[in-house]
Specification:
about 350 residues; alpha/beta; Rossmann fold; 2 domains; 7-stranded parallel beta sheet; 6-stranded mixed beta sheet; 15 strands; elongated
Length: about 350
């Protein structure tokens, strides 16, 4: 086992004075003979102020970074020539990319979701796909609870009314006591379980729907809803925590909103495309939903002509549920570590789909 410890200070003030300790399982990562080229990876895209953290990880083990801001597969292909790995945030990685980059062995996503990566095409070609699955569980669950309580307690509406000169406890309307409400969670994975845990003493009951979780994996304080419609009928507050895939795309639609209690609240911190947005807006307009709090949308940033921007019962945050200073460091470190570990051992630490290509 080998350990690489790096101290890095950034004069820009972002992610400063950090100690990065990397423990690589298996044999030490050996420096390559000078006759051989350094392994090269494409940092396909990111929205961070700098790449200092990644360079602090890659430089000591001799990995060269090709940095880009790729929005299309063609851009990924152009910059990815000769690269053995791709580190990405939102760049598209499809069959076309995989076919055009014969040296590619691993794709590592900076995040838990991987809906911009064609995992089937990667697996077929032997390319490993990895992610950062557990970096911001607490942050997302806390954000979801904050959005739920902000909706129930009319926090945003109070702030708006006070600034407009209104000073009355009933200015935005009536409200109900959270301890008398039922929280419904769709998707009981890492974040859904954390949401249930931190919310169980806030709400009267917690129910959840997840057909992929066995009864034994439901916490004792979470009741199981048999179907999505069953959850909709029971919940006063619905919090969405599912991945985006073929099964969940558009899953929350007019049929779902037709089954919910009138005057209920809806929170989404998972993926925007799980929800049919026109159906949600119709439910808001009809009063079926008393409020909707959304951190994610099918199109981001939110279009300037979206009715959500003007809707008095909608709360929007900019895909920020994952964020804290600590979670950002963990997120980026784990995504980069996948590539380092694959180069050292032939397998990344957080496997989404298995590959066969070796360094």
């Amino acid at each position: 086992m080998s350990q690489v410890v790096v101290r890095c200070t950034n004069r820009s003030g972002h992610l400063t004075s950090r100690d990065v300790a990397l423990t690589l399982a298996g044999p030490p990562f050996q420096s390559r003979p000078t006759a051989l080229p350094m392994p090269k990876i494409l940092y396909a895209d990111n929205n961070y102020p700098d790449t200092d953290l990644e360079r602090a990880l890659f430089d000591p083990v001799g990995i060269e970074i090709v940095a880009g801001q790729c929005k299309t597969e063609e851009q990924v292909i152009e910059l990815g020539q000769g690269c053995c790995g791709i580190l990405l945030q939102y760049a598209p990685i499809g069959a076309k990319v995989v076919a055009a980059l014969p040296d590619l062995g691993i794709v590592s996503r900076i995040g838990a979701g991987f809906d911009t990566v064609d995992t089937e095409a990667c697996e077929k070609a032997g390319v490993w796909v990895a992610n950062s699955p557990d970096y911001g569980v607490g942050e997302v669950a806390t954000h979801a609870l904050a959005l739920a309580l902000a909706s129930i307690r009319n926090i945003v509406a109070y702030n708006r009314d006070v600034r407009a000169g209104q000073w009355h406890f009933m200015s935005p309307g009536t409200m109900r006591r959270p301890s008398g409400l039922v929280l419904g969670i769709i998707g009981l994975g890492r974040i859904g379980k954390r949401m249930a845990h931190i919310s169980r003493n806030v709400f009267k009951r917690v129910v959840a729907y997840d057909p992929h979780i066995i009864d034994g994996d439901f916490p004792a304080y979470v009741e199981r809803a048999a179907t999505l419609a069953d959850l909709a009928r029971q919940a006063d507050v619905v919090s969405l925590h599912t991945p985006l895939n073929a099964e969940t795309h558009g899953m929350v639609d007019a049929a779902f909103f037709g089954a919910v209690k009138r005057g209920s609240y809806f929170v989404n911190t998972s993926r925007g495309a799980v929800v049919n947005l026109p159906d949600l807006i119709n439910a808001l307009d009809a009063g079926t939903l008393a409020g909707a709090a959304l951190d994610v949308l099918p199109e981001e940033p939110v279009p300037g002509d979206s009715p959500l921007l003007r809707h008095p019962r909608a709360i929007l945050t900019p895909h920020a549920a994952f964020y804290s200073v600590e979670s950002e460091k963990e997120l980026r470190r784990k995504a980069a570590q996948n590539i380092i570990t694959w180069l050292a051992t032939g397998k990344p630490e957080y496997v989404v789909s298995r590959g066969t290509r070796t360094p």
